[in-house]
Amino acid sequence: MKQLYFAFLCLLLCFKQAHAQDITLFQQFNGRYDYTAIGNTLNQAENNLSQSFCEILPSSQATLNLPTNTSITAAYLFWSGSGPGDTTVTLNTTAIVAEDTYTVNYNEGTTNQLTYFASYADVTGQIITEGDGTYVFSDLDIADVLANTPGYCENRTNYAGWSLYVIYQDDTLPLNQINLFLGLEIINGDVQDKTIVLENINVLDNNNAKIGFLAWEGDNALNYGESLSINGNTLSNPPLNLADNAFNGTNSFTNTTDFYNVDLDVYNIENNIQIGDTEVTINLTTGATDTNGIFRADLIIINNIITVLNSQLPDATIMVNTYNVSCASRLVTIDYTVFNTNSTDILSANTPIAFFIDTILVAQSQTTNDIPIDGNETSQITIQIPDNVPDNFNIQLAIDNNGNNEGIITETNEENNTTNQAITLIAFPETIIIDSLLECNHGYNSAIFDLTQALSQINQSQYSNFLFYETLDDITSNTAITNPNNYIANTTPQNIFIKAETDQCFDIYTFQLVTQNCPPYIPQGFSPNQDSINDYFNIQGLYSIFENHDLLIYNRYGTLVFKGNDNTKWYGQINQGLTNHGKTVPVGTYFYVLHLKDPNYPTKTGWVYVNY
C-alpha cells in the first residue's frame, strides 16, 4: 500500500503535459513476483536502412502468454514516437489516456530542434480482465508531425512503437524485489555518454538477477561505439545483442530482430551485481569515427529500466489510527499500527519506534512480536507533551528509528518509515470568578462552610458534575475536597475552585471563603466555683474573634475590679486595685464595659450576676 501511495505521489508531483524526466524509481513490488513484456513497432522497417517511408503503421499487435498458475499484479502500457506526443491511444478496443508524458529534444543533423515523446498508463484492470491473448495497439497519430516537420524523416528519426509490461505473482518463485524505474533520457552525438544510478534496491541473493530496458530509436545499422554496461561490466547476450550494438531493434522476450527502432531487452546480471548492493550504476555510450573518418552516433532514448532481484527483507511502515487527548491535560494517547506489507521477510520483534516533535525526541517504543509478510501490529502509547510545545503541533512517528535517526534493520524501502499526525491539545480552561461565601468567624478567621451554596451562582443545567478543589494544581492531580457540605476553613480569606464537568471538558469557577465578626453573645451570670461548669464569664463569639478587645468589670460602687483581653478571661477574680489581687469577688451584681475595637460594633455595656 505504501508503494502505491509513493507512485501516486510521484504522479502528482511530476505531472506536466510534456517534460523531460530522469530515470527514477516509479514502482516497487516485493514478493514472489516476476515480469514479462510484449510490444511491437509501428515502423515499416528500420528507418536508417531506407528513406523510402515516413508514415508509421496504423496498428501493430503482440501476444501475451503468462506462465500457468500466475496472477496479474500490475500492468503498464508504454508508447513513444516522434513529435510532442499523442496522449490518447487504443489497446484492443479500449481507449487509453496517458497518465503522464515525457519529452526530450534532439538537434543533431538538422537546423530544427526535434522533439520525441513517451507516454504511459496503468492498464492493470484491462489486462486482468482480458488476460492472455492478442493485443492490438492503434490510434497513435503522429502523421501531422511527420508531414509538417521534414527533419524527422530527413534525419531518419521517424519512429513509433509500444510495449506492455506485466508484473505477475507466482507462488513457485523465490521472494523477489521488482523495481520499475521510469523517465526519458537521451544519448546521441551531443550526449555520447550517459550514467544512470538506480537506487532503492536491496540485493540479498544475486542468483537469476536480471535487468530489462525499454529504449526507442535504436538502429541495428548504426553500431558506432554503442555499449551498455552495469557496474562497469559490459552487457551482451549474443547473437541478439552484441557488446558493441546493444540498442539494435531487438526483443529478448521473442528473440526477434525486427522490432524496428525499439529495444525490449532483458539481461541476466547475476555476475554483475553483488549481495548487499543498494544501487546499480548503468552506463550507455554511443559515437565513433567510421572508416571514412566521419564521426557518427546513434540516437537512443531510454524510457524505463526494470530489475528483478532476490531480496528477502521486511518493509516497516507505520500509521496513526486514532489519538486521544483529555481536557486540560498534556498527555496524548496514540493508537498506531506497524505494517510489514511491501516485504519479503518478517519484521522482527523489538524493532524500535521513535516519536518526534520538531525533530526533538519525545518518546520511544518498539514492536512486540514478529510481524509476518503482509502482517501488522497495533499498539498504543501515552506521551507527556513538554510544556514548551504549543497546543497545536505535529508529531512524527518513525519506525526502525533508535531515536538518533538510525535504523537497525535493512528494508526493501528505506524511505517510507515515517508518518505525521497533527494534534490539538485541549487547553486548561480560563478561571471564572464568582461571589464569595461569607460565614461568622469561629476564631482566628476560621469557619465551617457549605461550599455547594456557591453553585447557586452557576447555570447548573449545562454541567454533569461539580467537584471542589483547594488549588488549581489539585485539579490537575484530581485531589478533590471530600466533604464540601461541611468544609472547615482554618484561615480566611481562602480561594476555592469548582470543576464544572461537561461531556467534553470542564469549566473552572473560583470564589473566596470570607469570615466576618458576628455579634458576641453575653451571658447574665456565671458561677466561678471550680466545678468545671460555667466557671468564667464566657462571652461567646468574643475570644479569638475580637482579638483586640478589652473587658472592664466594675462593682456596684463603680470600682474597677478586673481588666481582661483576648488572653485573659474573667474567672471572678480581682486583678485591679491596690489589694485583694487574686481573690474571688463576693456574690452579687457586677457591671461590664466591653470595648470590641471593631468599627462595625460600638462598645457594649451591661451587668452580670456572680454566684457560687
Largest sheet: 5 strands, antiparallel
Distance between the termini: 101 Å
What integer is the average pLDDT?
Answer: 89
- The count of DSSP E runs of length 2 or more, i.e. the number of strands, is 39
Count of helical stretches? 5
Rg value? 47 Å
**Structural class estimated from helices and strands:** mainly beta
Query: What spatial form do the alpha-carbon principal axes imply?
Result: rod-shaped
Low-confidence parts lasting 5 or more residues at pLDDT below 50? 1-18
Strand content: 35-45%
Approximately how much helix is present in the residues?
under 10%
Largest beta sheet: strand ordering: 1-11-20-13-16
Q: How would you sum up this structure, described in words?
A:
- The protein has 612 residues and is mainly beta.
- The strands form ten sheets. A five-stranded antiparallel sheet has the order 1-11-20-13-16. The protein has a five-stranded antiparallel sheet with strand order 2-10-4-8-7, covered by helices on one side.
- Mean pLDDT is 89; it is low at 1-18.
